[in-house]
Specification:
single chain, about 140 residues, mainly alpha, Muramoyl-pentapeptide Carboxypeptidase, domain 1, 2 domains, two-stranded antiparallel sheet, 4 helices, elongated
């Protein structure tokens, strides 16, 4: 079997580097054009639309104004933001190989385990959660 020439190997390496540079630039552009003051969204089981693959998923509606960007979701929290986070986690559980969790608005052990899987830490805000999920969804989207 013939080994690739030095020129071919260089072209392959440059192509791989170019793909990573373009992904980083796209990510930076997406983050810089995002409206940071926009209210995040929560799931609404009454609304659905087809995705690019034709699959129908629930589309979020506006998040309650009671859930501010700085509201930390943590063990023992009991509120609408926790319930919204639980619904969001369940809707995207397959992205993180998670089992569905109880949706009761109480931040307990299941919710904490899911937060660790999604955010890499025990606590976080709803905005951090949506950002992490959106980043995971879009990491390879649109490139192939």
């Amino acid at each position: 079997m013939k080994t690739p020439s030095k020129k071919t190997a260089i072209i392959i390496v440059v192509a791989i580097i170019l793909i990573f540079v373009l992904r980083a630039a796209k990510s930076k552009h997406d983050n810089s054009t995002r409206d940071v003051n926009k209210t995040p969204e929560i799931p609404n089981s009454n609304s659905s639309t087809p995705t690019s693959s034709g699959e129908v998923k629930n589309i979020p509606t506006n998040l309650s104004k009671n859930c501010a960007k700085e509201d930390i979701l943590k063990m023992g929290s009991k509120n609408f933001c926790v319930k919204s986070a639980q619904e969001l986690i369940n809707r995207n559980a397959d992205l993180f190989s998670l089992s569905k969790i109880g949706v009761d608005g109480v931040f307990g052990g299941e919710t904490e385990t899911a937060m660790i899987a999604v955010l890499g830490k025990k606590t976080g805000t709803y905005v951090e959660l949506t950002t992490a999920i959106n980043n995971k969804k879009s990491f390879w989207g649109g490139w192939w």
